[in-house]
Structures are given as structure tokens and as C-alpha cells.
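FORM 12-B: Structure-to-Sequence Request
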């Protein structure tokens, strides 16, 4: 087997905290001073160490549990040769004692020799098939480099030990490997009531990461009930409740998180707190949280976009535009969605402005979408469609709507095939042109070819059929 490099902490925690350490008092009492002496004298010479261990080894020479407990202490203190000696001596007398193989595997793991570690854990699975730790440690070796191999080992454990919570352990392995969809799949099979505090948290996070936000929120609420002092549940709850628009609960979770001194706050925490408050229409408080988020991470200008959205909802378009401008100026990777949000502010400003300022205000909407089309030529059709659509919804801008709808149609009609978004834009643009020519311009002849295009994509469109006289005489 090729040498495998991997982080050993998880495997060692599992191994060294296994039932093997739950020793009887007679050797627990004797092992404690040995452990303390080794810690106090890390550079103890071999002769002194042999003398320290001699009586213990002699006393418990027929007790494999006591000997492996000693080996674990030696391993943790990096006395690898002595730990290996203990493990091998146990195997020579008790070949079916699985914890000795685990000890040797842990030593290999501590030395960053994953290949040998896996072999020893596999030996445990063979020689002591009812010992769950062999399967667990073997699965931990492979959890990142081959989650499938890890899963296979845990399935074997389930076959041998139906009573063992294999599903939860398999889910934990997939969570640790960043395969959250598989983690959710196996957590779903586990008994939720028996999950540990941290496994339940992994379950909630995995569900959140695969966009099962409602499930994540349910798990968080269950976790808060069971482990009310764990602030991480409130953090996940703040995210999930905000994303599912349960804003009142999101604010409550956020307040608990922010009041917990033991957990370090992040810019994301303040951002989500702001989003929760914004959703709950506590606008002034939301702005304050977004400002704190930016203060914590001055390189991320996203909070300014959220502030712009908040000011827009407050009806303060000028402040919204200031924040949007700051966000866009510091965001070279602005997406089409970012441009659309800026345009939306100008649309709102156009609606609220004076009639004589409508054309000038709407020109700013056109300018924003023109910039978007220049930066992202593949969505130029969408930029034209949005200009046409916004103009269609406003009074006295019919000519602008027709002009930009036509640009969208002209760009898409030459395509051999259109995706769903393109089809929607094409159909809506044709409908908008036809409707305005027919209903506003009273020019049915010019409108007909556009309505005919609509019917190719939407044969039951009532207005198009009416205009073309297919349902009733055109009016």
C-alpha cells in the first residue's frame, strides 16, 4: 500500500478515547505516576524509562488492556519505539486482541505513515472483527482521500455490529471530507435523538451547505433545545432562519449569538444580523450591523450593497445610490445581478420622480444596463430586455420599451436554439412590442408578426390570439 499522508487527529481521538482506556482502578492508579513522570521528564534516558516501566509490565503481563493503556501513554508522549514494543508484545501473546493493532496503527499515524496505519487498522478488523474501533480508525484514514473506501469499512462494521451507530460515523466522515450531500444522506438514516452535540451540529451545517435550509433550521431548533449553551447552534440558526425568511427567529438567534462572549464574532455574523434585521424591517439597526461588518473586513464591500438595498426599502434612493456606487467602484467582479440591483434603484427613483424628470431618470437605468452589456456581452440580450421591460411598466416610455424590446428580439432570433431564460426574454419582448403597437399605437398590421412569434412559443396566449382574430374579432 502506498504511503498515505493525512491529518491524524481525528483517528487518534477516536482510538485513544475508546473503551480500552476505561481501565480498572488497580492499574489506573499505577499508571498515573508513570504518565506524570514521563511528562515531567521528556528527555528521560532509555535505562531510566525501562526501570520506570518494569514493575508495571511485570504486574500486568497477563492483562492486555492494561498493557495497551501503557502503550497509548507512550505513544501520546512520542515514545514511539517503546509504544511499538508494547503493542507487539501484546499481539505475540493475545493475537486476537484488536486494541493492540489499533495502538500500532496509531503510532504509525502519529509518524505520518498512513499506509502502515491503515494496514494495522485492517489487521484489527480481521483479527478482532467485533471491535468497532478498527473499522472506525481505518475509515478515518480514508475519509478525505477516499470517502468511498471509508464508507465501505463502515458498512462492514454495520454488518458485524448492527447495534453500533454506523450511520452517524459514516456521515461524520463525509462531513469531514466536505461531501455534505453524502453527510446529509447518512445523518438522515441515523437516530437524531442519539446524535452527539457535535454530530448534530454537523448535520445542521451539512443540510445548510446543500441548500436544505428548512431542514437545517429544524435541526438547529432541536439542537438549541437539547444543547442551549452551544452558541454555534444560534449562529447556524441565524443563517438558516434569515435565508428561509423567518426573520423574527433570525433576529432572536442573532441576539443570543451576539450576547455570547465566549464565541468570537466574524464579519459574516454582523452581515447576517443585518440581513435578519432588514428582513424584519428594523432598517436603522440593520444599517448599523452592515457598517460593523465592513469595519471588521475592510476588503469586502458587500455590506455596502446590503446597505443600498436597505436604503432602497426605506425609500432613500440617494443614500442607496451612494452605497451602490461605493460597492461597484470597489468590486471589479461585479455580476449582472449587481448591475440589476443598481438599475432597480434608478427605476424606483424614476417612479417617484416628477413627470418632467422621467426621461432623464430612466436614462440612468439605460446607462447601467448598457455598462452590464458591455462587460458581459453574452447577456446583452437580457440587458436590452430589462430596459424594455422596465420602460413597458412605466407610463410615457412606450417608444423606449419598443426600441429595446426590438434589440432583444433581433439579438435572439438568429440563434439556432435558446435556453429557458432566452426563450422567456424573446417571448416577452415580442409580446411587449406587439401589445404596444396594437393597444397603444393602434397599428395591428405592424403588431401581427410579433404576436405570431408569441404563439410559436405560447400557442394558448389569449391576448395574442385575440389580436390576431383567432379567438374573437380584433378590437
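FORM 12-B RESPONSE
SEQUENCE OUT:
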Amino acid at each position: 500500500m502506498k504511503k498515505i499522508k493525512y491529518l491524524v487527529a481525528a483517528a487518534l481521538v477516536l482510538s485513544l478515547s475508546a473503551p480500552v482506556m476505561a481501565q480498572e482502578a488497580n492499574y489506573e492508579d499505577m499508571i498515573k505516576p508513570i504518565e506524570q513522570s514521563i511528562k515531567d521528564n521528556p528527555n528521560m534516558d532509555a535505562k531510566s524509562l525501562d526501570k520506570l516501566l518494569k514493575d508495571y509490565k511485570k504486574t500486568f503481563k497477563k492483562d492486555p488492556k492494561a498493557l495497551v493503556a501503557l502503550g497509548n501513554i507512550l505513544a501520546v508522549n512520542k515514545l514511539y519505539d517503546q509504544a511499538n514494543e508494547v503493542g507487539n508484545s501484546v499481539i505475540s501473546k493475545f493475537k486476537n486482541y484488536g486494541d493492540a493493532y489499533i495502538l500500532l496503527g496509531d503510532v504509525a499515524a502519529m509518524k505520518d505513515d498512513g499506509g502502515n496505519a491503515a494496514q494495522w487498522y485492517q489487521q484489527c478488523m480481521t483479527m478482532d472483527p467485533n471491535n468497532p474501533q478498527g473499522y472506525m480508525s481505518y475509515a478515518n484514514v480514508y475519509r478525505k482521500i477516499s470517502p468511498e473506501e471509508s464508507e465501505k469499512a463502515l458498512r462492514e462494521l454495520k454488518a458485524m455490529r448492527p447495534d453500533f451507530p454506523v450511520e452517524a460515523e459514516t456521515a461524520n466522515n463525509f462531513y469531514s471530507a466536505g461531501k455534505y450531500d453524502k453527510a446529509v444522506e447518512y445523518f438522515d438514516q441515523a437516530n437524531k435523538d442519539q446524535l452527539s452535540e457535535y454530530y448534530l451540529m454537523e448535520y445542521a451545517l451539512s443540510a445548510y451547505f446543500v441548500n436544505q435550509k428548512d431542514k437545517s433550521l429544524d435541526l438547529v431548533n432541536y439542537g438549541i433545545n437539547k444543547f442551549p449553551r452551544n452558541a454555534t447552534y444560534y449562529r447556524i440558526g441565524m443563517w438558516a432562519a434569515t435565508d428561509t425568511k423567518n426573520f423574527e427567529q433570525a433576529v432572536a438567534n442573532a441576539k443570543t449569538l451576539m450576547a455570547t462572549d465566549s464565541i468570537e464574532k466574524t464579519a459574516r455574523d454582523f452581515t447576517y444580523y443585518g440581513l435578519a434585521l432588514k428582513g424584519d424591517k428594523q432598517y436603522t439597526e440593520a444599517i448599523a450591523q452592515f457598517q460593523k461588518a465592513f469595519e471588521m473586513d475592510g476588503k469586502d464591500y458587500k455590506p455596502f450593497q446590503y446597505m443600498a438595498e436597505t436604503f432602497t426599502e426605506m425609500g432613500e434612493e440617494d443614500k442607496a445610490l451612494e452605497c451602490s456606487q461605493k460597492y461597484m467602484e470597489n468590486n471589479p467582479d461585479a455580476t449582472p445581478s449587481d448591475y440589476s440591483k443598481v438599475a432597480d434603484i434608478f427605476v424606483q427613483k424614476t417612479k417617484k420622480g416628477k413627470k418632467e424628470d422621467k426621461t432623464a431618470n430612466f436614462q440612468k437605468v439605460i446607462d447601467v444596463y448598457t455598462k452590464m452589456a458591455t462587460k458581459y456581452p453574452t447577456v446583452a440580450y437580457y440587458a436590452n430586455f430589462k430596459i424594455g421591460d422596465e420602460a413597458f411598466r412605466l407610463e410615457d416610455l412606450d417608444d423606449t420599451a419598443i426600441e429595446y424590446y426590438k434589440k432583444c428580439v433581433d439579438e435572439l432570433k438568429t440563434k439556432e436554439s435558446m435556453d429557458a431564460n432566452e426563450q422567456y426574454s424573446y417571448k416577452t419582448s415580442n409580446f411587449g412590442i406587439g401589445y404596444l403597437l396594437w393597444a397603444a399605437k393602434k397599428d395591428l398590421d405592424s403588431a401581427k408578426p410579433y404576436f405570431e412569434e408569441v404563439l410559436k412559443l405560447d400557442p394558448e396566449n389569449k391576448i395574442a390570439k385575440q389580436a390576431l382574430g383567432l379567438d374573437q374579432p380584433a378590437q
